[in-house]
Specification:
about 160 residues; Helix Hairpins; 7 helices; 2 strands; binds phosphoribosyl ATP
Length: about 160
């Protein structure tokens, strides 16, 4: 059967073929978009390093003595060491709850909270992140088991 649609005349099988072609074209576009998005995610992931912790420390440091109504860090710092330590403890407990509950997304979020509050604690104590990085670097050369044994403790 011939179908007439305005200027062009096409057979039914021709229409079916063109619809199938259109659908597979859409699928190709969708899968190409998924590939592009995956590439973007991969690249964004590659760009993210622990340097974000140094930047966060700089930001929190810059909030010391500023208006607590404008900055959460300034508010926390104005409340003193005990309060900061308490907040850090609360965030750590929330983190461990998510670790046990098994929600990876929540664990990521709670881990970020823990790191933020730990950095506020460092700022209050006048500790530079480099001091922690140095200590971690020192430990790189030693296995945890060997270190424990060197203290005369048996591994659990
Ligand atoms: N990473 C964080 C971050 N993580 C968590 N939080 C805040 O921590 C708070 C935790 O809420 P809670 O209710 O547990 O704490 P709270 O309001 O002190 O509650 P109470 O103790 O009063 O009960 C929330 O307000 C979060 O927004 C953070 N606030 C700031 N940062 C970083 O610090 C930078 C500077 O922030 P400001 O200091 O606010 O400018 C920001 O750009 C961020 O990069």
């Amino acid at each position: 059967m011939a179908l007439s649609s305005g200027k062009s005349t096409r057979t039914a099988s021709g229409v079916k073929k063109s619809r199938t072609k259109k659908a597979s074209g859409k699928k190709k576009v969708a899968s190409a978009l998924l590939e592009i998005e995956k590439g973007q995610r991969d690249r964004a992931g590659d760009d993210i390093t622990a340097a974000v912790l140094d930047r966060l420390h700089e930001t929190v440091l810059s909030r010391r003595g500023t208006d607590p109504s404008l900055s959460h860090s300034a508010r926390l710092l104005s409340r003193g060491r005990k309060k900061i330590a308490q907040k850090f403890g609360e965030e750590a407990v929330e983190c461990l709850i998510e670790a046990v509950a098994g929600s990876a997304n929540e664990l990521v979020s709670e881990s970020a909270d823990v790191l933020y509050h730990l950095i506020v604690l460092w700022v209050d104590a006048g500790i530079a992140p480099q001091e922690i990085w140095r200590e971690l670097q020192r430990r790189e050369a030693m296995s945890g088991i060997a270190e424990k044994a060197s203290r005369g403790e048996k591994p659990a």
